[in-house]
Structures are given as structure tokens and as C-alpha cells.
Amino acid sequence: MTLFRKLLLATGLAAAILAPVAASAQDIKPRIIRFGYGLSESSNQGRAVKFFAEELAKRSGGKLKLKGFGDASLGNDIQMQNALIGGAQEMMVGSTATLVGIVKDFGVYDLPFLFNDEAEADAVLDGPFGQKLIASLNEKGLVGLVYWENGFRNLTNSKRAVTKIEDLSGIKLRVMQNPVYIDMFNRFGANAVPLAFSELFTALETGTVDGQENPVTTILSSKFYEVQGYMTISRHVYSPWIVLASKRWYDGLSADERKILNEAAVASRAFERKDSREATTQSLALLKEKGMKINELSAAEVARMREMVKPAFDKYAAEGGAELLKDLQAEIAKVRKP
Ligand code: TF8
């Protein structure tokens, strides 16, 4: 061995120099990954899925082929979760809120007015609290890769402008299939109707429900402005999306494939959050242009709502969520700017 080679090995430089050779010898099989999602291809969700597919192709020399299936064409969130658990589908993205049937703890994110802004959400979700919740999916047959941003949720309806809580009275409001949401909106005086997102547009159109709540990006991309005249910027819940893989499938991947998948997921997270945040401002302007009557909930009204839903927090704590809620609030306090 030459002195040069010896030196290389000793300093560990060899690994770096030989890395390109190793890359081509990586254990990657050609695979098709069926990735389901509920929104349209042109939504922020659709754009992020496309980005993810491109990243995977780039990092795997085209071997890992992600095929996106939008508009809930593989099923709604809950149906897809079950398909992943059974191994009939490889991947999906959906709201954490719809995971409560599998891991109840995910409901903690749905309590209202927890996060003040996106930076707080990022820090907590990507930090130990959010990662511990993600890890709890493994024993249920799911692998959580990363959180994406769905966003702060706002109210829309076809009846009237909502400027105070009382305006919600009697409004049939579609909520996600999640007890925290049902409880919260019933306390606000609405008539909460749990329904899969895939059925929402028709339900609004036919008057089965009068209103719904979602981030402005979704209100635009799902064309809710066509059937909803009023929007109230309430930002009542910060809603995360979670990118999931079937554990059965994931366990069959090589270490190299898993590494590529995880790294592409992290890249997609950065893309998705930036893109969604840019789209939020733009969506608001477009919704105005489409003729929606938009008002912002006053600080005083938000304070009233906070007061009104205190019992929802107590209920959540009493039903076994006390410690989790305390942990979450402590994590938020750590990252909150004074
Ligand atoms: C909802 C959610 C949905 C998302 C999407 C289907 O209201 O916010 O928009 O989970 O992935 O159901």
C-alpha cells in the first residue's frame, strides 16, 4: 500500500472519495409507489406530491417511481390508512386529525388555538414531541415520515357572515371525523357533522351541510367558493398533514431505499411548507376576487371562543389526555417568543 493510500484510509477520506462508486452499487430495486392524497393535483398538496416524486427519482436513479393519486381516488384518509396497514397501498398524505381511530393521541393537535404561528408548529412537530407521536404509529402498522403543513383553519358557510360566535348558531358545519372537532364546534353552537373530505363538496352543494372549515389554500383549490359565500378568518386550529408509509411495505425496503425515502421526505417537507405559505397569501386574494365575503375574527371574539372551549380541554384531559396535553403545552411554551 502506498503511503498516500495509507494516509487516506487513516484519515477516513477514503470513504468520501470512494462514495460515488458506492452510490452506484446501492441496493435499490425498481419499485412503484402508489401515493394517495385527498386534494386535487393542482393544490398545494398535489404540488408537494409531485416534488416528492421528482426527488425520489433523482435520488434513486429513476428506480423509485412514485405515482400520485389525487382527489381521494384511492379512498378517503381513513380508507387509505387501512390500505397502508394491510399493505395494499404504499404511501399517502392526510390530516393527522383523521388518525385518531388508530392512535388517539393525534387528537391533541386538534384542540383550538394551541399554536400562535407556523414557526411554533414547525418547532414542536419536528421536535421531540412530534417525533414521539410519529413513532407511536409503528406498532399500528404505519410509518410516519414527516409532517407537512395543511395550515391554520378558517370557517366558511353559505348562510351569513360570522363575526361573533353566536352567528354560528344552528349552522350545519362539516368537521373532520374526529371527536375533538365535533366537541369544539358543538360548544360554539354549530351543529357539527363529521364527514369525509371526499364527500364535502357535494354535501355543501346540495345543502346537506351549510359550512365547513379548512385552510384558505384548500378553500381555493377545492373550489368551495363556488358554494360558500362567506369566509371568516378564524385560524382556530393549526392542522398538520402527515406523510405515511405502509410499515409492511417499508420493512421490505433495503437500508439504502429507506434512506433515500426518508431524505426525499425531509426535502419535500421544506418544499411543501414554503409553497403552502406562499400560496396562503395568494389564495386569500383570489378568494376575494371570486366574490367571497371575507372577514377576520376580532381578537376580542377569539378571546371569547377560547373561554368557551376551555371545557373541551378539560374533557380531553379527563379522558386520558392530561399528560400529553401538558407535554404539548410545555413544548409550545419553550419555543414561544415572549
Ligand atoms: C379535511 C382536511 C383535508 C385533508 C386532505 C384530504 O378537512 O383538512 O383537506 O386531510 O388531505 O378533511
From TrEMBL:
InterPro entries for this protein: DctP_fam, TRAP_DctP, TRAP_DctP_sf
Keywords for this protein: Signal
GO cellular-component term (any): outer membrane-bounded periplasmic space
Annotated Gene3D superfamilies: Bacterial extracellular solute-binding protein, family 7
This protein's record includes keyword Signal: yes
GO function term, MF aspect, one: carbohydrate binding
Highest taxon listed in the record's lineage: Bacteria
CDD domains referenced in this protein's UniProt entry, alphabetically: PBP2_TRAP_YiaO_like (cd13679)
Pfam annotation, one family: DctP
Annotated signal peptide: 1-25
PANTHER family: DICARBOXYLATE-BINDING PERIPLASMIC PROTEIN, PTHR33376
Protein name: TRAP transporter substrate-binding protein
UniProt organism field: Azospirillum griseum
